[in-house]
Hints:
Layout: H1 22-25, E1 32-36, H2 44-50, E2 55-59, H3 63-75, E3 81-84, H4 88-95, E4 101-107, H5 125-134, E5 135-145, H6 148-159, E6 164-167, H7 171-174, H8 179-186, E7 192-198
Parallel strand pairs: 1-2, 1-4, 2-3, 4-5
Antiparallel strand pairs: 5-7, 6-7
Amino acid sequence: MNPAAPENLIYTPESYVDRLDYRAMFAKDQPLEVEIGCGDGGFLGQFAARHPERNFIGVERLKGRLGKLDRRGRREGLTNIRLMRIEATYFVQYLLQPRSVEAMHIYFPDPWPKKRHHKNRLIQPPFLDVLTGALRKEGTVFLRTDNIPYFEQMVEVFGADSRFEAIETPDELKVVVTDFEREFNAQGIPTNYAAYRLTA
Length: 200
């Protein structure tokens, strides 16, 4: 039986300028996966429950969403999740240990639909440089969005980077839907999937 979940899954590090100590965060030393923009945990809570042999960090800026996932995770006794309220790029670049992450999940990031705001989208060439610093060799990035123009940009950005190769999204991921995804699909809006493996 798993040890009891901590009183609070929302993790506050002693320092925001030093790398995270995963052994201090988790009860077990296990492969690490990260979800950027975890919302209120539609994906993360389900997937972590299915994979107790992995550790997960969920990153989200909205406090209310983190609170919902915190309550859900503690209620379900999940000991392999920690949550952080922090800006995504800073977190990946400065807090994650180098070459330590098995998989990054980035689902339904803000599409910033107006053309003048496209520069604010997360998936840009500079962010891929940040990702490569955190991912293990052959680590993976899994992407989902309902926004076709943003999806095309994601595919273009990753396709132009020789450090990554396109792979299929596993079925075990597709069957775990996010809360956003469920809402979009109910309206007849399909999910666009992409996945890439780091080769460098």
